[in-house]
Amino acid sequence: MLKKIALAALCLSSLCGTAVAQDAATVIANARNALGNVRSIVYRGSARDVAFQQCGANAAQMICYGTHDPMRPIHNYVRVIDLDAPTSRHAGDTLNIAGGPSTELVAGKFFQQVTPEQADLSQPWGASLELYITPWGFLEGAARRNATATRAVIDGKPYTVLSWSPEVKAPSGASYRIDGYVNEQNLIERVETWLGENIMGDMHIVAEYLDWMDFNGTIAPTRIVQTRGGWPYFEVHVKDAQANPANIASIAPAPERPAAPGGFGGASQSFEIIKEQLGDGLFRYTTAGFSYDSLVVEFEDHIMMLEAGQNQARAQAYVDEIKRQFPGKPIRYVMVTHPHSDHTGGLPVLVAEGATIIAHENAREFFERAFGTPRTLLDDALARNPRVPRIETVSDMRVYSDGKRTVELYHVYPAPHSDALLIAYFPKEKVLFQGDFSVIPGEPANDHVQALVATIERLGLDYERYINVHASAEPQTRADVEAAMRLRKERASN
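User: That's the sequence. What structure does it adopt?
Assistant: Structure tokens below.
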């Protein structure tokens, strides 16, 4: 179904097949009328979301089974859309594991919004599209931006497809586009757009609005399903809806200190690179202050880089330093401990260099989808030098060696954090390199570290140095890990 709709969208963009021009203004008016000509709406129910590229381990499901699996439940969910402001807000209650290294369950609040300033169509598209991919916001934008209309038949079902573009342009200078699929009842069943994303390229964002019904005079969908890059991203089950509520401004208010959005893009930065030699041909690259560490291994005729530096700016700095330190030796491999955005953010730079990605086999589909997507909306190293990367995968273990230097890669599972976690072990140097198993001095080991220690003990890895991609303040050793595990056992017995 999705492939057929995507193909139809491509046909529509070039007016191929039997698509014919429609009167867009009439289509918009009829769709607005079918929705009750509302200027604001609030709907309530339950929802699920996920941080992109991760999974949402929660009170019901503590193990990560795959990309965006599980998703995180949101209780007491409420969504407000106000076309006159214009603004969008949604909020709810959560009970998920805490962020970072913690696996403690923490009650929290979900809140996201599109402010009136963000809703300005001359502002960044990524900040405003959550308003405009709703049926109500989409029609508002279509009326303001000279939408066009075409006809399409998908799986035997006829649609009118409205298309329009915001004023703002993509970093590449290309225009964004948003399409809405209007059925014969003048209801919008689907809205889609594309957004440049660091790993996913021209990321396809799709919101489907299903099983519309009348809630005491208010027409609304009972199921909303959003995907990004083909992966589940957000779902809502609507239990109640109300049009034009009198108290719209007081519903789902912003918290006093809303969380600032994060990102791992390729903004220009400068770094002071600090190198530590761990052995013959083995180096740790870090940067002053907050850092994401990478290991660099010199083989006889090539370089392997373990972890891509968190974002494109740091990745480029590491690549430039590798070329200075090892002139003439290509970076043949880049190993990824797991496919979370803070560990994949620098990969476009390495892929543009021609490096083969090494990842666990559970991450293959993610990387193949990501780097098989065009990057027409981006202006970065990979957009300027397009390549489809080679991907080599690890199952339980894999060894890379040239007879002088050896890197052993192992899978850690089950674990709360990811189903595609890899660690690297250097037997000669007795170094263990891992992504998200943080050991904090004086604190007990968490569930992540326990999962790692179980793997280490099963494999009998004889390590001394313990290196985290998320750089610790001081060098850590096996003794630090063992101390954390003892504290865990002591607290569990008390």
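The longest strand covers residues 201-215.
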